[in-house]
Each structure stands twice: as structure tokens, then as C-alpha cells.
Amino acid sequence: MRRAVLARAVKLRPEAVAAVVDAGYLPDEDQELLPLLFLTEQFERYDREDPNGTRLRAVLAEKRHRYEHEHFLTVAERAGRPDPWPPEEPSPSRDRTSTRHVTTWPTGFGGDSFGGHF
């Protein structure tokens, strides 16, 4: 039951957020603590755990698939806090001049390098 309430709280379901805060529910995994504290607006404890937000950004960068940016943005705007979501990683350039491709052919097509003739 507790896990279900926690899962709903990180999706900003108001009744689940209230239940998590009132009951003091905490996640099983340490890496889930900071996102939960932020999303449930438990900022006093969150600020003690991560005063400058770097740990939360690191967790979100690693576990971005578990959370939705929209939820963090909603809470940040409501609380007047910066968006903790880490910036997107730059994608590799598709410019042909940035990547050098070298194609070489083996020498000795006469059979010297391959032990036979074609």
C-alpha cells in the first residue's frame, strides 16, 4: 500500500501527496528520496539533504526515465524554485566535417595479402 501511495505522489496526485507528507512515508531506495521530497514540497528536509540541488539533478540525469519533467516544473513554479531537471545532453553532431572517416584498402590484391587470387 505504501509503495502505491508513493508512486502516486510522484505523479502529483493531491491525496497521495498529502498521505505521504502526513504519514512520513519514505521510499525504499535512497536515490528516490530527493525526488520525492521535492515533488511533495517537503522543502525544509529537501534543503537540508541537497542545499544547492546538485544531488537531485544527478539523480534525475541518471534516472530520468522514472520521472516526468512536467511534474518537477509544476512544483518548481508553484514553489518559486528553479527547475531541477538537468539539461538535455547534447546530441552528436550530424555534420560530415566533424567526423572523419578513413577508408583504406589492403595492399597486394595479387594474392600477397590474402593467400590466394580472386
What distinguishing features does this structure have?
single chain; 118 residues; mainly alpha; 6 helices; 0% strand; elongated
What can you tell me about this protein's structure?
This protein is an all-alpha fold and 118 residues long. The protein is built from six helices and no strands. The longest helix has 11 residues, at 69-79.
State the low-pLDDT regions, or none: none
The largest pleated sheet is described as: none
Structural class: mainly alpha
Beta strand %: under 5%
Average pLDDT number: 86
Overall strand count? 0
- Principal-axes geometry comes out as elongated
Give the termini separation: 71 Å
* Oligomerization: single chain
- The residue fraction in helices comes out at 40-55%
The secondary-structure element order is HHHHHH
Number of continuous helical runs = 6
Using only C-alpha atoms, the radius of gyration works out to 25 Å
Brief write-up:
The protein contains six helices and no strands. By secondary structure, it is mainly alpha-helical. Helix 1 crosses helix 2 (14-23).
